[in-house]
Amino acid sequence: ARSENSLTQSDEFFDLVGVVESVIADATFEATTKGVHINPHLADAQASARPSIQGRAELIRRAIENVIRNAIRYSATGQQIDVTVRFDTAENTYTVEILDEGPGLTEAEIEKMFEPFIRHDERSGGFGLGLTIAAELVRGHGGTLILERSDASGTSFCITLPKGNFGAPS
User: Fold this and answer.
1) What span, in angstroms and rounded, lies between the C-alpha atoms of 136 and 90?
2) What percentage of residues in the chain have a pLDDT greater than 70?
3) DSSP secondary structure of the chain
């Protein structure tokens, strides 16, 4: 088992917005087949002007993909998923918010959200390992993955990632 700290000991720097764009491009076919629309709201700055993140791009990609695919899974035909990426210059962090219009969650479900193989309702097989893995990958990069909002009209996951030690565009 690899320690979480090894994730942040990477010499790799990557463009988070580019990673999110790639995940959305891959998830769009699945969403469209289900009649769900993904609305990207990505950082306005050109790639060369955005700060890079230090870490392993493929692991953060997997974390974001797990959350977006979960949102697609629990969305119905005609619903939308908003994916927003923001950079906070004061905090030196990126935030990725994934907001769906699915069935929402009860307080009891929220408490168990990141436990593997928890059943969401009688129709589903549960959350599986996807969200558990996503949370671990984000934590391994010094970030957080939290359920920010839940009610009858959807769920919002908020991923916050630090820019990293250097992070200047190269």
Assistant:
1) 25
2) 75
3) ---THHHH----EE-HHHHHHHHHHHHHHHHHHHT-EEEEE---S-GGGSPPEES-HHHHHHHHHHHHHHHHHT--TT-EEEEEEEEETTTTEEEEEEEE-S----HHHHHTTTSTT---STTS---TTHHHHHHHHHHHTT-EEEEEEEETTEEEEEEEEE--SS----
The mean per-residue pLDDT over the stretch 154-165 comes to: 86
User: Are 68 and 99 within 8 A, CB to CB?
Assistant: no
pTM: 0.82
At 119, is the pLDDT very low, low, confident or very high (cuts 50, 70, 90)?
very low
Looking at residue 21, its amino acid is E
Residue scoring higher pLDDT (163 or 162)? 162
Phi, psi of 85 (to 5 degrees): -120, 125
Q: Which residues pair with 151 in a beta bridge?
A: 154
